[in-house]
Design goal:
Layout (H helix, E strand, L loop, with lengths): L20 H10 L10 H7 L6 H13 L6 E7 L3 E7 L9 E4 L13 H5 L4 E5 L25 E3 L2 E3 L6 H25 L5 E6 L1 H12 L4 E7 L21 E2 L19 H6 L1 H6 L2 H14 L6 H12 L6 H10 L10 H4 L7 E7 L6 H13 L3 E7 L6 H4 L1 H13 L1
Parallel strand pairs: 3-4, 3-7, 7-8, 8-10, 10-11
Antiparallel strand pairs: 1-2, 2-4, 5-6, 6-9
Helix pairs in contact: 1-9, 2-9, 3-10, 5-6, 9-10
GO molecular function, one term: phospholipase A2 activity
GO biological process, one term: phosphatidic acid biosynthetic process
Organism: Lachancea quebecensis
Length: 415
């Protein structure tokens, strides 16, 4: 299935910056870490020709959790036969509000395995789940409740852009809501199934985007919200809220992520790679397996657990490790410049949680200036919000520096 919002045309003549995301990805693909065991691309390719990844993912998950020490008890269940859930209980902990850890795109609850110990000391009921169609959670039916809207085509040339025709923004927003609801309604059902009142949510990257929209749709469900290097904050030229006039030339803004004229610097991800994603690696056969392992060992160089790297490899390269449903939703909510079609800044006035925290790594590739803008606008709306950074860390800051991350989160939840 092709996501209904994936068709758009980008015409750009700008050169690629030195630290652009595509350049970093390429470096990780071709430069394996010297201190990590290398794999046989042929052996991995043969091993993944037929077998579904779920069996291996479950085995690796159990191996990772076996080495995690927590205060209190831990229970892993398939909630209502659908949602893979970890529940850490510690009656002696000071923070009594149930708290959910929510992973990013192409990830799972195991992303927080280095945080379980530290956070379980302070939170009485700590949960970590795999979103539907992610990790070991089962795919739920994706219901398409509206027709496909007219594609959003934006022509970019030098420092300007224009649309050849106007679009029906309400139709586009309805389609976006359709895809968001796949996760939002599942999260609310999960909360009700666990018989939970208002919860705290700590969510990373794409999970940050989803949790923000969850707080918008279900304001009674979220008490405190911590967005960890969230995706989709910036206003941008692709936002369906802009109402551009057809055949009217507008000037681009490459600096201000709070501007509706904003465009992230650097080239877009090629459309074929953006839509195919991990299928590209599988189609490359043994070479794809080797490139995938090189990327993982570089991207997670600060994570000492080899089993976790094997787990991520299984998600990226294994058959159905990343489901088609999750890909379709992601490519329908974001452009191939990783800009949201319905940005968080456009929805901020709907947020009514008690407190909001934006936290990034000090070497994060995500747009930290956008986080600062969101906090500033939230404060103007009367929302208690704060911004912080974790040292010696990148986009996966909770993995890179778990102790400092845990301390920051606990302090936020305790106040």
């Amino acid at each position: 299935m092709r996501g209904p919002l994936t068709s758009f045309r980008l015409l750009s003549t700008k050169s690629q910056p030195r630290n652009s995301l595509p350049r970093r990805l390429l470096k990780r693909l071709i430069s394996p870490s010297a201190d990590i065991p290398q794999i046989s691309g042929w052996k991995q390719w043969l091993a993944h020709l037929k077998d579904d990844s779920r069996v291996q993912l479950k085995h690796l998950q159990d191996e990772i959790i076996k080495n995690v020490e927590v205060d209190g008890s831990v229970e892993n269940t398939l909630m209502m036969g659908e949602i893979n859930q970890f529940h850490f209980q510690n009656s002696l902990a000071e923070i009594k509000t149930p708290t959910l850890l929510l992973h990013g795109y192409a990830a799972s609850s195991m992303a927080f395995h280095r945080n379980f110990q530290g956070l379980s000391k302070c939170i009485s009921d700590l949960y970590a789940i795999d979103l539907p169609a992610n990790g070991l959670s089962l795919p739920q039916q994706l219901e398409i409740r509206c027709t496909e809207p007219q594609p959003l085509k934006i022509e970019i040339s030098n420092n300007t852009f224009k649309l050849p025709y106007t679009i029906n923004s309400l139709h586009h927003k309805s389609a976006i809501q359709n895809f968001e609801d796949y996760y939002l309604d599942a999260l609310e059902q999960w909360r009700l199934d666990n018989k939970l009142g208002p919860i705290n949510v700590i969510a990373h990257s794409f999970g940050g985007y989803i949790s923000f929209k969850y707080a918008v749709k279900y304001p009674q469900a979220v008490k405190k919200l911590c967005l960890v290097s969230p995706l989709g904050v910036e206003r941008n030229i692709f936002s369906v809220n802009n109402n551009w006039r057809s055949n009217t030339e507008y000037k681009l803004d490459f600096e201000n992520p709070a501007s509706k004229f904003y465009l992230r610097k650097g080239p877009a991800i090629p459309a074929a790679i953006f839509e195919l994603q991990t299928k590209v690696l599988r189609r490359l056969g043994p070479l794809g397996a080797r490139l995938c392992w090189n990327y993982i060992t570089a991207a997670y160089a600060r994570v000492p657990d080899l089993k976790y790297k094997e787990y991520i490899f299984e998600m990226f390269y294994g058959k159905n490790g990343l489901t088609q449903t999750s890909k379709d939703i992601f490519t329908s909510l974001f452009t191939n410049r990783l800009l949201a079609r319905d940005p968080l800044l456009d929805s901020l006035y709907h947020i009514h949680c008690e407190k909001l925290l934006l936290v990034y790594g000090d070497h994060d590739w995500m747009n930290r200036k956008a986080g600062l803008e969101l906090v500033a606008e939230a404060e103007k709306l009367g929302l208690e919000a704060q911004y912080s950074e974790v040292s010696s860390s990148g986009h996966n800051l909770f993995l890179d520096n778990p102790e400092e991350f845990n301390d920051l989160v606990v302090s936020f939840l305790n106040k």
